[in-house]
Amino acid sequence: KKGRSLILCWRHRWGIPTEGHAEGTRIGECEITYNRSRIAEAGAVVFHYTGLDKEEMPWKHYSVYIRIDPDQYFVYTSLEAPNYVMHGEHKSLNQFNGGFINWTMTYRRDSNVFCPYFSSHVARPYYKPEPKYIPQLWVVSNCDLLRGSRLRMDYVTKLVEAGLPVDRYGKCFNNKEEFAGMSSKDLNSYKFYLSFENAENCKDYVTEKFCQKGLEDGRVPVVWGPKKSDVEQLAPPGSFIHADDFESPAKLAAYLLYLDKNDTAYREYFKWVEYPGEEMERIKKLYARTREEVLCDKLLSNPSPNIVESVTD
């Protein structure tokens, strides 16, 4: 039974059939399936957090089977902050502790399976040297659901009051369609992206706002939410600006306006591209294999049983 290479995803992420890998996808030596009838073949069964409270979950029907198959691993996966899972979607995960979940697969570096927003095949951010102009870009749909949501809205309001032009789009500003209709030329013209998360000081919680909207799209991410020390462990050195380095939103606004007028200073945030250095080697290694690649590696390495104490930290 050891070394089984089938990974059963109990349901698609958020229950949306187009989310996640397609049926039969090969990742390394492993195969992805959604066919629950193959549960006995699976080395791992992956549960997205949105499906952990569903009636059809296997603990309702396979309690004996679970006990006699210690070589199968139940994996909890989520890219959302726990605060949002519990308070935004009102899902209590405490009932699944105490031995049901063996491994976690999340954005946290200390997860059993590291599952960052930057998957290995897109973890190659690049810099586009086309002319850019000063307005910052910010797209947000969560306005006041969580404390972090309210704090970031307040911070950006203060940036604008301090004289920083910020182009704001999304559900919160009733112009989601307008943003969707923007041309690639317009989108590529922004120098900065406000990578403001909806959770404050949530360990390693750095989302697509930083990864795709910032680095991958050739902008400098301006970060609020995660601790700077966490971002430094996850991002290329010198690639971002953190709000915690400034005494006030007004000070940050003044600095961004300064960068707009000083192209040499602005380009310092892309120095890691031209002169990667030793720190970039660590970053490349961190993202070399992620998500199901790591899960497959763990399954094929004949791991010893590992019970997660909590999925709600």
UniProtKB/TrEMBL annotation:
<keyword id="KW-0325">Glycoprotein</keyword>
<comment type="similarity">
    <text>Belongs to the glycosyltransferase 10 family.</text>
</comment>
<keyword id="KW-0735">Signal-anchor</keyword>
<dbReference type="InterPro" id="IPR055270">
    <property type="entry name" value="Glyco_tran_10_C"/>
</dbReference>
<dbReference type="Pfam" id="PF00852">
    <property type="entry name" value="Glyco_transf_10"/>
</dbReference>
<dbReference type="InterPro" id="IPR038577">
    <property type="entry name" value="GT10-like_C_sf"/>
</dbReference>
<keyword id="KW-0333">Golgi apparatus</keyword>
<keyword id="KW-0472">Membrane</keyword>
<feature type="domain" description="Fucosyltransferase C-terminal">
    <location>
        <begin position="136"/>
        <end position="308"/>
    </location>
</feature>
<dbReference type="GO" id="GO:0046920">
    <property type="term" value="F:alpha-(1-&gt;3)-fucosyltransferase activity"/>
</dbReference>
<keyword id="KW-0812">Transmembrane</keyword>
<dbReference type="GO" id="GO:0032580">
    <property type="term" value="C:Golgi cisterna membrane"/>
</dbReference>
<keyword id="KW-1133">Transmembrane helix</keyword>
<dbReference type="Pfam" id="PF17039">
    <property type="entry name" value="Glyco_tran_10_N"/>
</dbReference>
<dbReference type="InterPro" id="IPR031481">
    <property type="entry name" value="Glyco_tran_10_N"/>
</dbReference>
<comment type="pathway">
    <text>Protein modification; protein glycosylation.</text>
</comment>
<dbReference type="GO" id="GO:0005789">
    <property type="term" value="C:endoplasmic reticulum membrane"/>
</dbReference>
<dbReference type="InterPro" id="IPR001503">
    <property type="entry name" value="Glyco_trans_10"/>
</dbReference>
<protein>
    <recommendedName>
        <fullName>Fucosyltransferase</fullName>
        <ecNumber>2.4.1.-</ecNumber>
    </recommendedName>
</protein>
<feature type="domain" description="Fucosyltransferase N-terminal">
    <location>
        <begin position="4"/>
        <end position="117"/>
    </location>
</feature>
<keyword id="KW-0808">Transferase</keyword>
<dbReference type="GO" id="GO:0046922">
    <property type="term" value="F:peptide-O-fucosyltransferase activity"/>
</dbReference>
<keyword id="KW-0328">Glycosyltransferase</keyword>
